[in-house]
Amino acid sequence: MSPDLASSEPLLTARGLARHYGVRLPGGLMGRRATLKAVDGIDFDLARGEILGLVGESGCGKSTTAKLVLGHVAPSAGEVRFDGAPVPVDHGGDWRRLRRRMQMIYQDPLGALDRRLPIAAQIAEPLQIHRPDLSRADRGARAAELMRAVGLRPDQAARYPHELSGGQRQRVVIARALALDPELLVCDEPVSALDVSVQAQVLNLLEDLRARTGFAALFISHDLKVVRQMADRVAVMYLGRIVEEGSPEEVLHRPLHPYTQALVSAAPSPHAGRRRARIVLRGDPPNPVEAPAGCSFHPRCPVAVARCRTERPPLLREGRRAVACHLAQAAGGGFAPAPLPSAAVSGAAA
Amino acid sequence: MPTAPLPASPRDLHGASPAAGPAPSAAPLATLRGLTVDFDIGERYVRALHGVDLTIARGETLGVVGESGCGKSITWLAALGLLGPGARVGGSAVFDGQELIGMRPRGLDRLRGGRIALIFQDPASALNPVQRIGRQIGESLALHRGLRGRAARDEARRLLDRVGIANAAQRLDEYPHELSGGMNQRVMIAMALAGEPDLLIADEPTTALDATIQAQILDLLRDLQAESGMALALISHDLGVIADMADRVAVMYSGRVIEEAPAGRLFAAPAHPYARGLLAALPDIEGPKRRLETIPGSVPPPHALPPGCAFAARCPHVDGVCETAPPPLRPVPGAPARRAACARLEALVRPPEPAPVLQRQEQRA
Ligand SMILES: Nc1ncnc2c1ncn2[C@@H]1O[C@H](COP(=O)(O)OP(=O)(O)OP(=O)(O)O)[C@@H](O)[C@H]1O
Ligand code: SF4
Ligand code: SF4
Ligand SMILES: [Mg+2]
């Protein structure tokens, strides 16, 4: 179900969005002051009903982006607009009114739930806060309907979170998030804590509910397989910036940026067989406190050229595709995958 | 298959056939037989491991895969006497001719970290936070190889070098918190190598690491194995990691091995309904996008297992015969190298049927 991008304004826009934190590094008497650039100037749009997948390694800024979108933290620069208006961050009345329309699903369902409340009460909680117009009976009926929608049995209504399995708990979280018919779901690693067999249940559930209710989602995951399954569009982050964007098929089957190429080739798959060719990057992911100058990927990039050390490649867009790499430009215009030398590829079948 | 003579040393094995895996006739390096674990839960014991049979050959990579709580970790912890007093361990675990179950603590201490090494998911918590890296590797070198002083320091530096840590000499004087997660896992691997192990047990060694760092560590393990000929028991919940690394795979469910097969064949055509379900439930990067198949329900808790097959409540093929006793692990019909624990194997893995006669007649007409 691809949303019609031309027909409406995006539901969500981020422009020049950044979040920096002041930190102290070891060194000197009091330590050295430095800036951690968790998110460092990102632009993206999300259409109504669209799912944008956000991928990247730990510390690249995925979760900070989620918090910025939800108004949990204030941007250091730039802004997020939801349905045309800036997202407020003061947790006041404006923010609460907006929060009815955007909801969050976290990685750890147990942490997101109240241990002392039966699950039906937790599912009805947003209704109690935001829909005082509903009678108690109506709220109960709506909670029962939500439980059914996420595949929980009526007899489980009085259960407490610890009496449920991990997958059932995540269903409770999803039911609660959908209670107010949100237009946007922010999902931060929603299935990472679940076993494969349960993960598939939850992914299918999200797909079905989306088909029925049409929510848009920012879907954050380190697992490329999961993102491909869920997303209409994928953005790849590295050190606080978006380095590539496109449809899942484009990004995962014909990655342009050297980092995306490495990430895709490193994703283990039981269908890929044994000892397949893989791009193995040298070095550790760099520290966001001291992001390298120029292209921040250059110390690990197998094809970096002199220019990469000084000149930051801008994120260039062509239609639905975007990439930030000096070498991902095709000779006749447009994009082409940055050419990786065969020396960067290891583990090929003997 | 031709029977190869037992190689003189693990190194020879890999010199002769780097990619071919172990010689099929070689006596296994380690053999687990009927291994059980019962945990003391106050009033009574609950069985968490129900008689695991596994072997691992010299130089071989055995992948152990299964969902959280299925017993992947306790299998090896039990074999090495690492479960503590709350656990009762039964059955047998033989390593190179020596029985480990019931072995004196001193004997086990000598083996662990020496000929059998372990690395875990979270290197930071396995390393001592207040001791310099060099000292921690040095202790292992002193214990297992009698190296001290200059010789130990030189060897520690060589090991850090070997696992791909830059500035090894300087790193020896650093503490674990000064290194990244990937580097700490390299340090753990260096410590494991200090005892020149014949068997490395790696329990989710890359689960806490980012994808690009995981690729580095898996590559390193593979190189080290090819170089030293050590066997690797690789425990992971990630089917992709197992497919990438393992020669042979054991799939566990609810405290039992439910299927065991050469890796390629397991992933191409799993025999056990649970193994099939697991593969069908996994999304993929390649191929056409499809709706995921799900396994309904969830794993039964260890204290409430059904009398028959533990997978029965979730199995699409369940039948009366499944519900009387747990099906034993037995050869898959028509595939003697594979074993599966399913009462209905004969019905499920039917040999390919000959083309129906009717069709041929139609063609002739
Ligand atoms: N010390 C203990 N006391 C009681 N039960 C335990 C103990 N250690 C493990 N168990 C139980 O034994 C079973 C097997 O645990 P094990 O740690 O081997 O699982 P696993 O397959 O390694 O799971 P994971 O993928 O989560 O690491 C689980 O039901 C677990 O809860
Ligand atoms: S800009 Fe240069 S360093 Fe950055 S990804 Fe492209 S080639 Fe590599
Ligand atoms: S024994 Fe029966 S219930 Fe168990 S896996 Fe086989 S068919 Fe399914
Ligand atoms: Mg474990």
TrEMBL record, chain A:
Belongs to the ABC transporter superfamily. SUPFAM superfamilies: P-loop containing nucleoside triphosphate hydrolases. Keywords: ATP-binding, Nucleotide-binding, Transport. InterPro entries: AAA+_ATPase, ABC_transp_ATP-bind, ABC_transporter-like_ATP-bd, ABC_transporter-like_CS, Oligopep_ABC_C, P-loop_NTPase. The keyword Membrane does not apply. It comes from the Bacteria. Its main location: membrane. One of its GO terms (molecular function) is ATP hydrolysis activity. The keyword Transport applies. It is a peripheral membrane protein. It holds the Pfam family ABC_tran. Coiled coil: none annotated. This is Peptide/nickel transport system ATP-binding protein. It comes from Albimonas pacifica. Residues 23-264 form the ABC transporter domain. It is found in: Cell inner membrane. GO terms for cellular component: plasma membrane. GO terms for biological process: peptide transport; transmembrane transport. NCBIfam families: oligo_HPY.
TrEMBL record, chain B:
GO terms for biological process: peptide transport; transmembrane transport. Residues 32-279 form the ABC transporter domain. Residues 15-25 have a biased composition (Low complexity). This is Peptide/nickel transport system ATP-binding protein. Belongs to the ABC transporter superfamily. GO terms for molecular function: ATP binding; ATP hydrolysis activity. It is found in: Cell inner membrane. It is a peripheral membrane protein. The keyword Iron does not apply. SMART domains: AAA. It comes from the Bacteria. Residues 1-25 are annotated as: Disordered. Keywords: ATP-binding, Cell membrane, Membrane, Nucleotide-binding, Transport. GO terms for cellular component: plasma membrane.
